[in-house]
Design goal:
- The chain has 286 residues and is an alpha/beta fold.
- It has one domain (3-160, 185-214, 255-270): Rossmann fold (3-Layer(aba) Sandwich).
- The protein contains 9 helices and 12 strands.
- A 6-stranded parallel beta sheet has the order 2-1-3-4-5-10, sandwiched between helices. Strands 6-9 form a two-stranded parallel ribbon.
- Belongs to the dTDP-4-dehydrorhamnose reductase family.
């Protein structure tokens, strides 16, 4: 029985993979928390991987506190770059299949068309820079790895934008949301399924892929969709990013082109509102 190790197991994507794992009983699953796979302790990381001895690694662990990363650069770089290098080298040395998750924040946001895997990267914040460094380490050390860039991830698990907005829409009479950052959300359950579609595919085709749900929207439009599905009556106002300053800059445009993953793996990409509806239905039932 092949063994799958999931890093970042308590995060949104890791939690969705755990829920999905019931459908893949042909594998032995290990959902590794920070004590089992210490991405912030490079001295023990390789030894931990050797102890777990996986056949497949789904690297969902990351430092994702975008604003905090501006002042915790060393820690962000350790987790998002240096640890990825160790995992990639281990996977290469032991013929382990590796899927590593990256982000749309490797781009600077100046594009006006959906970004392909070959688009020029130019991160504008520390988080994006460390994630790009991790991509480069993975590509350099392990040509057999698969990297999936994704964007605006949410889930029924953990803390995320959808859950926060649902709460605010119920509690407040009016809220303001940025309307000049364009991209597409990703329901983590959909991404988890895509990862398993790749794992179980007849052919392993290494390289960089993009995945998010379909749709080109702003955060403001995303909230309007949450409001519509949830039946909330709160007034939602769109505001420019300049009216909501944050320690880390965000790319103004980071819509990902999903053409490659559709073509290579035959992935069916749901519309963002369909996935959002499914997620919110699950949240209501909990």
């Amino acid at each position: 029985m092949q063994k799958i190790v999931v890093t970042g197991a308590t995060g949104q994507l890791g939690s969705e993979l755990k829920a999905l794992s019931e459908n893949y009983a042909q594998y032995e699953w290990i959902f590794a928390d920070r004590t089992q796979v210490s991405l912030d302790n490079l001295d023990v990381l390789k030894k931990q991987l050797e102890v777990l001895s996986p056949n497949i690694i789904l690297n969902c662990g990351a430092y994702t506190a975008v604003d905090k990363a501006e002042t915790e650069q060393e820690l962000a770089n350790m987790i998002n770059d240096l640890a990825v290098g160790i995992i990639a080298q281990y996977a290469k040395d032991h013929s382990v299949k590796l899927i590593h998750i990256s982000t749309d924040y490797v781009f600077d946001g100046t594009s006006s068309v959906a970004l392909t895997e070959e688009a020029i990267t130019k991160p504008i914040n520390v988080y994006g820079a460390t994630k790009r460094a991790g991509e480069l380490a993975c590509l350099k050390l392990n040509s057999d790895a698969i990297i999936i860039r994704t964007s605006w991830v949410y889930s029924r698990f953990g803390n995320n934008f959808v859950k926060t907005m649902q709460l605010l829409l119920q509690e407040r009479d009016t809220i303001s949301v940025v309307n000049d950052q364009i991209g597409s959300p990703t329901y983590a359950a959909d991404l988890a399924q895509v990862m398993m579609d790749i794992v179980t595919a007849q052919e392993w085709i290494a390289g960089m892929y993009h995945y998010s749900n379909e749709g080109e929207i702003s955060w403001y439009e995303f909230v309007l969709a949450i409001q519509e599905i949830g039946g909330f009556t709160c007034e939602v106002n769109g505001i420019p990013s300049s009216a909501y300053p944050t320690p880390a800059k965000r790319p103004a445009f980071s819509l990902l082109d999903k053409g490659k993953i559709k073509e290579v793996y035959g992935v069916d990409v749901p519309e963002y509102k369909d996935s959002l509806t499914r997620c919110m239905k699950l949240l209501r039932s909990e």
